[in-house]
Amino acid sequence: MRDKPVVLIVGAGPCGLAAACALLRRGIRVRLLEAADEPMRGSRAVQLWPPALEVLDELGVLDEAVRRGRKVHATTYHLAGGTVFRVPLGAENEPLLLAQEQTGQILEDALKRLGGHVERSTRVTGISVTGPTATVEARGPDGAELIEADWLIGADGVRSTVREQLGIEFPGDPVETSFLIAEGEVEGAYEQGCVHYFLGRTGSLVFAPLRGGTVRIGAPVGRDFPLRDDAVQELLDSRGPGGLRLTGTVAISTFGSQERIATSLRAGPAFLVGDAGHTHSAVGGQGLNLGLQDVRNLVWKLAGVIDGRLDAGVLDSYDPERRQAAEQIVRNTRQFVRMFTLGPAAARVRNTAWRTVQATGLLRRWFVPLLAGARISYPDVLLGDDPSAPPARRGLPRIGTRVPARLNTPAVERSSRLSLLTLGAAGGALDRRGRALAARMPGVLAHEHRPRRRPGFVLTRPDSYVAAGGRTATELDALAWRLSGSMPAPARAPVPPLP
What we know:
This protein is of the alpha+beta class. The protein has 12 helices and 24 strands.
């Protein structure tokens, strides 16, 4: 008889694989079930933005992903009338173009190195959540099995069996526009390491060179668009720059999409991640990135609860945080679709506006970070409500936002613990209190001090979001009380004042 898994994961796409790897790296026993007989083939989601790359970094596979993929250093916008402007992204916003098939293979190889494996051809047929555990009925190559687990993660896609078995609704609407995805070799002059957006009067087109000479072409099209090379070539001629010749395709398809968010991302010990919890248009390349961030948000909390470092109440923050992120992405991708599907008159207005935002620098300062996921924010729910908490202070990042690069530490160093960064005089009040607080919570909190003229502190979460901040020792004392009551399971009684 197999050992009871602490966490049962259903679905072995990139999100399920990433969750399994992250938990195994923390010494937590998992099982990973997958209904399909073989790994997913095809490129599908190809753009991994920096927040998703941080997940691969924490799992120790980023170097391999970069070796197989292609970094994007700039985006180029080609407007009707011949206007072209190139926007360097900057290292903090550069995505990696990597076929989803490759991402999955890299993660499955990592899973095997960690001693795990995917149980393929194993379909979930029933789920019962009673009290603190989940019981799953599954049928695999060896017949039916009843699996009891302390925790369950549904990573089984848009048609999630886990979501349906839990009785969670999935409201939303279809996206009216159909999109073409074509991949093949293209002859002609175009910049490598750059994603090209053609915003013409007759329609829009995205042109992304992948590694190995393959190019991904994406465009909004009619639902009856013919899936032929000559039709794709005609699209390149009418919407592209001219002079590009498609010499052969390896894949042509059209697809529709929907905008849906599950009514709950949690049911007791069960959680939904990735497309099982939300779906939206593929424009902007946000889907896989959103799912991997679900995994990152959940795993550090779940692992802390399982090994006794964190109070179970920390898991209550998963749904509101990731729901807000999903809602933001759905709104953004809806606007992207509208921008790429304008008629001729509206397209002229759009292109005039784009010239303006480029001239003012807003395209690089605002739109690029939006695409990169740097503007996703969370409600302040992690540590519980604190009406006495100070408002955002000038010079400190807001609670619930991504940690600025200037305050960051390498992802592998903060993958398990909160990080308290104190600023000011070395050996001063904030430095002393920070060291004392970290000593009391060694499994929960790490401390670093940086000498600065202006004192302050920032509490950083393992998933690169800001949990708290302030300027004074009194505010840090208040944070210590909140942490002792909300985070570490053993420290339920208030702590005495810090030195």
